[in-house]
Amino acid sequence: MLQAGIVGLPNVGKSTLFNALTKSRKAMAANYRFCTIEPNEGMVTVPDERLAVLSEISKSEKTIPAVFQFVDIAGLVAGASKGEGLGNQFLGHIREVDAIVQVVRCFENTNIEHVMDSVDPVRDIEIINTELILADLDSLDKQKQKLQKAARSGDKKAAATIDLIARFEPHLSDGKYAVTLDMSPEEKALAKPLFLLTNKPTIYACNVAEGDLANPEANPFVGKVRAYVAAHHETSAVVVSAEIESELVLLSVEEAKEYLDGLGVTESGVGNLIREAYHLLGLRTYLTTGEKETRAWTIQAGWKAPQAAGVIHSDFEKSFISAETIAYKDLVEIGSFARARELGKLRTEGKEYVVEDGDVMEFKTFL
Hints:
Helices cover 42% and strands 19% of the residues. It is built from 14 helices and twelve strands.
């Protein structure tokens, strides 16, 4: 299962946010550095309002959302690439995840220690990114030495990888992430086994105080983060309040809604963060619905219908015939899957059909 790793400096709210995401108390959240040593792992439910609508249409007995995994990784500090603060160990944990959620402190609170003694989110981002870049440069240097022997013996793949490394090195030295290098599909395939930390898709989570969630644009730190990451990392930043999220975990659905209404917001930042991270991992959702259950199934963007069928059961991919398909919005307008079939509104898609997010599907197989 794909994993999104939560990283950042110590005491920026990573563990509190992880606990909120996973609705657990797995991660210790304390006001001192390195209260997290070993990474904590937890399953996260992907918010999807489409499920409740389809479940009501089909009178489903149960509803099953999509899930994926988050990992809470201990805080990095300046010098991590050289081993400071158990940096080598923590960098290794980052290397194992598929995408990065970097939590950035965007609130003032004299009661919560900041490792740099002041709040400056752009500086904090640069500290983390510098350590990841330095670790990648060191890794590339070591891998290049091994590849050179293979290239000298005529290994064309090794030679092509060395050429790619020659492009990565000045790019990284300019403070840029490997993922922002313009690469061909062939180069992206060569880059994958290099396991570069900065080649992982990354999103930034601005952790704000409770009072800022309703109007995050009024928080100057948020604006600085968004401008910086858009310019330097070609990605986005979402706003969350770990403080609020830690309270919501303890409340019922009705109480949570009332609490958010009192703050002037309709949804917690965590829901948006989960969806952003889900898409960051290249994940998409198709839906099935019926009296027994309405369910969200997770696939990779670009998957074709047989691969999507294989998520339900591996034999479905092998025995795939076709897929009756309709877009979620069209199905809701018509009122039921059966009615859509009667009206001839269902599309019969074959093996080459690329599944879209929100497709409602029913597969025909030889089984």
